[in-house]
Amino acid sequence: MGLSTWHLLILALVALLVFGGSGRISSIMGDMAKGIKSFKKGLSDDEEGENPPARGADPKIIEQRPVETSERDRSKTTG
After folding, report:
1. I want to staple 7 with a disulfide (CB 3.0 to 4.6 A). Which of 3, 41, 48, 79 is the partner?
2. pTM
3. Is-contact 28 22, C-beta < 8 A?
4. Distance, CA of 18 to CA of 44 (rounded, Å)
């Protein structure tokens, strides 16, 4: 089982990242950390912006008539 072209390509990419210059990996990890922090901040902003329903509020009622089996079969063939 020798190394295929994909294995060699991945090894070359890793070697380029490791030996590509001083601080290359640390800068990549710093950028990744900034991205994760901004993602978490965005999630917390979304949660704060939502207004939960008041206690004791009536739930929304959606009225829908049941679909007959023959209607479902027709929608599959025409749709």
Report:
1. 3
2. 0.36
3. no
4. 35
